[in-house]
Amino acid sequence: MIKRYQIVFSSILTIIILFILIFYNDIIEFFNLDILLINAIIINIVAYIGRTLLNRILSVLLKKNLIYYLITFILNIIWIGFLFTLIFVISPDFGIVIVSFLIVAFSLTFKDRINNIASGIMIMLSNTIEVGDFIETSGVQGIVSNITLNYTKLQNFMGLEIYIPNSNIYNSSIKRFTHRKGQFSLKEQDKKDDAKNGTIYLKKLKSIISKDEKITRYLIILEIPFSITPDSIDTQLETIFDKYEKILGIRPYYYINKALKDRVSVSFQILSKNTGLIVAYKNKFMKELLYYLHKDEILIDSEYKSIEELKKNGFI
Prior knowledge:
Elements: H1 2-22, H2 24-31, H3 35-61, H4 66-90, H5 92-109, H6 111-126, E1 134-137, E2 140-147, E3 151-155, E4 161-165, H7 166-170, E5 174-176, E6 178-180, H8 205-208, E7 214-225, H9 230-248, E8 253-259, E9 263-272, H10 275-293, H11 295-300, H12 307-312
Antiparallel strand pairs: 1-2, 1-5, 2-3, 3-4, 6-7, 7-9, 8-9
Helix pairs in contact: 1-3, 3-4, 4-5, 9-10
């Protein structure tokens, strides 16, 4: 609707400016107008039409990235400059009053917007986050679907689109689950992976990821009782790890964090080159972990008496 309105309005202005140019001298004599005023009006109409056309062309060529927003911002500043020139031609005193009023109103009204734009430029230039990244910020987890100068759009696990002001993101901590190979820090381990042990060791992970590919890693920390030994974890979770290796493309792995009074803290990590798969399966993976590691306790309190019954009824 806005584009159609701009096309119609630009067409009307084009007809007006052609009419003025054709009957330039007659209009000045008939209305007894100042030549400088007529020229200022013509320049402003040409500037508006040119700005509108350039915005449409740039939106197609640059796909609304950072360069597009910077160029359109500069074009708008130039166009506003032409408008102020016209105002000062009409009445210098009135122009001074208008400029003073607009400066105060602009600074008060658009303070937050200016802060968002400055934050958006810093986010884009620093590559802190990119479109397609899985992040957590301001208490929200989701995939970055768009970054503009004013806000960043996230899509959460329920498919809802969440718009977060850039100033909120820039001034808060960001947990980024998606990384490129050069950003992906791993603890090297010298152990070898064998068929019996279901754990994939981190040393092999770098060879899976090519230089320009991204990988999304999601961490799940569970506390398990001492009765569950590392060997039994390997045995119980081998089926789950095999299943999710086929789904995600990279085998999940785990490592022991620390031993507490009567339990052990264990970190489980799922990884994939497809961010959407992590978002879709992370909760299901965590649920299956809990059922397999604590199946005895869960089955005692449940009407279902076996893992097979839980699977049959859609719990795992």
